[in-house]
Write a structure and sequence with these properties.
Radius of gyration: 19 Å
CATH superfamily: Aldolase class I
Order of helices and strands: EEEHEEHEEEHEHHHEHEHEHEHH
Strand order of the largest sheet: 3-4-6-9-10-11-12-13
Shape: globular
Number of strands: 13
Number of domains: 1
Bound molecules: flavin mononucleotide
CATH architecture: Alpha-Beta Barrel
Structural class: alpha/beta
Length: about 350
Amino acid sequence: MADLFSPYKLAEVELKNRIVMSPMCTYSCTTRDGVAKRWHHIHYGARASGQVGMIVVEATAVSPEGRISPVDLGLWDDKHIAGMQELAETIKSEGSVAAIQLGHAGRKAGVPDAVGPSAVAFNERTQVPREMTVEDIEETILSFSQAARRAKTAGFDVIELHGAHGYLINQFLSPLANKRTDSYGGTLENRYRLLNQVIQQVKQHWSGPLMVRLSVEEYHQDGNHPGDYVTIAQWLKQQGVDLADCSSGGVAQARIKPFPGYQVPYAEKLRRETGIATGAVGLITSPLQAEEIVANHRAELVFLGRELLRNPNWPLYAARELGVKIKVPDQYQAGWPTVNAD
Ligand SMILES: Cc1cc2nc3c(=O)[nH]c(=O)nc-3n(C[C@H](O)[C@H](O)[C@H](O)COP(=O)(O)O)c2cc1C
């Protein structure tokens, strides 16, 4: 039995294997109101029938001004619950765990009136955000917790907070975007305050598994580096966060040359040095590569992004390549005679 296909318990929720669909915006809310569309059901449903262990639904905005684009999914209003409920049911009906990523784009918003920790733009082509007042911050923290309440009502099993890629939470964490002189800026502890309070508030409404996505390397000499994120991961663990999903970049403009598994060392470092469970992501494409990461305890879970855009049935191919028998959906058994466990 390959370790990639061993079950994993994320707090009380069991995944049938270690394969996770990484959150990926599909920019498909054509009505621009954040409401899920037929497309979302087809897209996530296909990966669920492809036997992905957990599906993380794309960055979903906790407030309209926090959208990455006007066509993002949203959970900023109760009107979003019905569509999300159907989506969670679709995912779960094929045996996948349904997770959702809650986010706020801050200064990287693709809609007008961007806000951020400080009035510093990401680059010359993006908006200069309005510096958030303490009232704005408190309102945003409440938006996260209200979105978590709605995700729970909709039946999601797991929540991921988007703390990476230079979006709002990451902007607060990073000295590159956060120039505040109040209790939300300055020291690492102060810059962590927003995330700390978001977690505390979310936990008022959410007792299920909680993951946080981090940009463990910011690719700028004045930014945060893996050592800073070891400290942050310790705080996350103390706050009862169940998994750190280890990505990188997006706060500073940086040219990097990604290679297979380039971010795995971040997942490995945080896991080894803090004991927090981690997810590895980034150019993980082959079954043997994924198996190696799990078997060598470099991360508990592997998150696949673009490979699952190419191939929704990747877990079935991986099972075949690793010589593992798994449950194949009845309707597809004729196509996978050597993989089916029945
Ligand atoms: C089209 C697209 C949309 C993405 N949207 C998100 C997102 O909503 N949230 C997020 O945390 N990462 C997002 N990402 C990053 C992926 O989750 C993943 O971390 C990245 O693609 C690297 O993994 P891969 O090499 O397996 O694709 C996106 C990536 C792509 C290609």
